[in-house]
Specification:
With about 600 residues, this protein is α/β, with parallel strands linked by helices. The chain has 17 helices and 25 strands.
């Protein structure tokens, strides 16, 4: 077996091993090969004509659009995830092929295609996608065929996904190309095995064979699959990389300030080109990119090791506010941009804080906090009534409602496992960090795995799982749209939502709006047949064939005087704040948000990101 090319930098590696017109896969493990992605853009630009597959296009992956390097993208999500999930204006015309042709999938079906490619199978079988628009327009890769075991039923077959090359960023590798990763693993090594030619890798550190063999349980990708590699410190930046101090390699945090700068730039006058020039083309190399970040910022991002006597970690003073300030100063020196408020919480292991230790919040709940609390109540009641043991939430107010429900259930003596689709099981949010996919949550998890284990084994195959989802649009059948607006503009896509709604019972958390609660969704992203409740900021809708009825009503101010006035106000809310025709007769009052509920929520969200 020949050894892989060991290159001086990421640009040399891309120049040597990627060809124009290639299908290039950007592995999500869950950290991304961002240094290699920038190199793709610098080396090829619009002449690359690449097909790119990746779990999601957000943050640094916007460089694919800004450079023009990708002719086609295959993914499950296109938009922004931080500071909140939202559409990105770069993709407003995505449905019309701008800035690239897009093939949309759900997260699990996408990974199932990779698994089929890795195993040499002719097809993958999926329980997702059926009855939605995600299944449309894919005649060459998606097939509905008769189920041989169930007459009259159909199954969905998917063609395998086989890229030419797969790009990976790992923790460490040896000179033979064996690559070590630390869980959670996201899509894992499936794309490495599926790649026709092989893997192109950047790692934080290249070590000797003997050093890597001493930690061979952490080797995820064998050198036999690796074409070339290079060292690239902070090669996943601005995303986090969890290393668990493997082989002495420092892990690092998500650079939230940098992520916000990308979003601000894409929403600005130059639609991201100012960010792209500053951080992709102007540096000219990954080494210069890291230099531009600045020493103080690099130090602030490092995940400290409190078990080491020589580590300067101080849990009392090293806060997210300090980290954020360092990041902001570094960004401002290179490319000033408007940003949002800082995100203070501890950078190290935060002591658990009970709601009864937090002073009663002086401010009344906001509309969004009422939505989250009502959502948490609905989730908690579903768990108590039906015995669900696992909560899988989509990003946004839905994951905050799931987190709050889990805390309220624990306070009542009932444990439920919170999971995140990229591979975390049984976790409690870390120290006020409200980002759903923060890798800081990993160290408090009971188990670390990957997408197939979470969305497959712990959700789709688990009858006791409950999904908690958001919706850009939802109709009275429960069908959810997070893909395309009524005006044709692209929203974000499915992520794992379709997989959850296709296979397990769900609660949907959605703020009231006539444009959100619609008579017919503009795009069927996720099926509605498993939706048990839909929660708005004024009340909870429960399933009542063929649609939903308003079961509870939370007045904005004082409680109505008598059941007739309650019913009148509830019916008016349905009529003016939704486009539904749902019955409000028999509605019961929802109790006001309690100080305890608000204290729990504000403990989870100390900086008010979801107020």
């Amino acid at each position: 077996m020949s050894r892989p090319l060991i290159a001086a930098d990421v640009d040399e590696l891309v120049r040597a091993l990627v060809r124009p017109g290639d299908h290039v896969h950007l592995a999500g493990t869950p950290s991304r090969p961002n240094a290699l992605t920038y190199a793709l853009c610098r080396v090829f630009g619009a002449a690359g004509r690449l097909t790119v597959s990746t779990t999601a296009v957000h943050s640094s992956a916007h460089a694919l659009a800004l450079s023009g390097v990708a002719d086609k993208v295959i993914a499950g999500f296109v938009g922004d995830t931080y500071p909140s999930p939202r559409p990105n204006p770069l993709y407003a015309d995505l449905e019309r092929g701008e800035p690239f042709t897009f093939e949309a999938w759900s997260l699990l079906s996408y990974v199932q295609r990779l698994i089929a490619g890795a195993q040499g199978a002719p097809y993958a079988v999926t329980g997702s996608l059926a009855g939605t628009d995600l299944a449309e327009g894919k005649p060459d890769v998606l097939h509905r065929v008769p189920d041989p075991a169930r007459p009259g039923e159909e199954i969905t077959l998917l063609a395998p996904l086989r890229p030419d090359v797969t790009l990976v960023h790992g923790v460490a590798a040896d000179e033979d190309g064996n690559i070590a990763l630390v869980p959670p693993l996201g899509e894992g090594a499936w794309a490495a095995y599926a790649a026709g030619r092989g893997v192109i890798a950047s790692v934080e550190k290249i070590v000797s064979r003997d050093e890597l063999r001493a930690v061979n349980d952490r080797v995820v990708i064998p050198g036999q699959r690796v074409l070339g590699l290079t060292e690239a410190r902070l090669g996943a930046h601005p995303q986090a990389l969890r290393t668990d101090r493997l082989l002495g390699v420092d892990g690092y945090l998500d650079d939230y300030a940098f992520l916000e700068e990308i979003v601000a730039s894409c929403h600005g006058e130059e639609r991201g080109q100012d960010w792209y020039r500053t951080w992709v083309t102007a540096p000219g190399s990954h080494q210069e990119y890291v230099h531009r970040l600045g020493a103080r910022r690099r130090t602030a991002l490092r995940i400290p090791d409190p078990t080491r006597a020589d580590d300067d970690y101080d849990a009392e003073t090293e806060t997210w506010a300090e980290i954020y300030r360092c990041e902001k100063e570094a960004v401002a020196r290179v490319s000033p941009a408007p940003t949002t408020a800082p995100h203070p919480t501890t950078a190290g292991p935060a002591p658990a804080t009970r709601a009864d230790q937090v002073p009663v919040p002086p401010a009344p709940p906001t509309r969004q906090e009422r939505l989250i609390v009502l959502g948490a109540r609905a989730v908690a009641e579903q768990v108590r009534a039906h015995g669900y043991d696992t909560l899988l939430a989509g990003i946004g107010t839905s994951h905050m409602a799931a987190w709050l429900a889990a805390e309220l259930l624990r306070a009542g003596g009932q444990d439920v496992k919170v999971v995140a689709e990229l591979g975390m099981y049984g976790f409690r949010p870390e120290g006020g960090d409200t980002f759903l996919f923060s890798l800081l949550h990993a160290r408090g998890s009971e188990m670390l795995a990957g997408i197939p284990e979470i969305l497959g084994g712990m959700v789709a195959a688990n009858p006791r799982a409950l999904g908690v989802l958001a919706a850009a649009e939802i109709d009275e059948s429960g069908t959810i749209n997070t893909s395309r607006g009524a005006d044709g503009r692209w929203l974000t896509g499915s992520g794992g939502a379709n997989d959850i709604a296709s296979s397990t019972d769900c609660v949907v958390i959605a703020p009231s709006s006539r444009r959100r609660y619609v008579t017919e969704v503009a795009y069927r992203t996720s099926p509605g047949h498993r939706v048990r409740e839909v929660v708005s900021d004024f009340g909870r809708f429960t399933r009542a064939a063929p649609g939903f009825r308003l079961a509870t009503y939370l007045p904005a101010d004082d409680a109505p005087d008598g059941p007739e006035e309650l019913a009148r106000q509830a019916a008016e809310a349905v009529a003016t704040r939704t486009s539904w025709k749902s019955d409000a007769s028999g509605v019961v009052p929802e109790k006001p948000v309690t100080p305890e509920e608000l204290a729990f929520l504000r403990t989870l969200d100390p900086d008010g990101r979801f107020r």
